[in-house]
């Protein structure tokens, strides 16, 4: 059981912030914005924490992947090959 300290690091959000604000755009070139959705180690924050809906979470994931591809964002770890 997970009965440790009850500390909410992330406030629960009812709706996805991209659905709530149509001015917000998911742009892979906007690394500043994408940083909100990755951890310090460069991992993509899961949907249940970010509060995004499935559609926008997928767009964020795509944007992060694209940004990584053009070296705007770090990869999580060194991948074993
Ligand atoms: Zn959404």
Q: If you had to describe this structure to a student in words, what would you say it looks like?
A:
The protein is mainly alpha-helical and 81 residues long. It has a domain at 17-69: 30s Ribosomal Protein S18. Helices cover 35% and strands 0% of the residues. The protein contains 4 helices and no strands. Zinc ion binds at residues 16, 18-19, 52-53, 55-56.
> Which value, in Å, is the CA radius of gyration?
14 Å
Bound small molecules, deduplicated: zinc ion
Shape: flat
Unreliable parts: none
Determine and state the CATH class of the domain at 17-69. Few Secondary Structures
TL;DR of this structure?
With 81 residues, this protein is mostly helical.
Detail the topology: elements first, then pairings.
Elements: H1 17-20, H2 31-34, H3 47-50, H4 54-69
Descriptive key words:
single chain; 0% strand; 81 residues; mainly alpha; 35% helix; binds zinc ion; 30s Ribosomal Protein S18
């Amino acid at each position: 059981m997970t009965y440790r300290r009850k500390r909410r690091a992330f406030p629960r959000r009812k709706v996805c912030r991209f659905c709530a604000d149509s001015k917000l755009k998911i742009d892979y070139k906007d690394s500043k914005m994408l940083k909100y959705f990755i951890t310090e180690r460069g991992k993509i924050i899961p949907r249940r924490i970010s509060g995004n809906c499935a559609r926008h979470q997928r767009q964020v994931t795509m944007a992060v992947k694209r940004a990584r591809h053009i070296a705007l964002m770090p990869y999580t770890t060194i991948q074993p090959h």
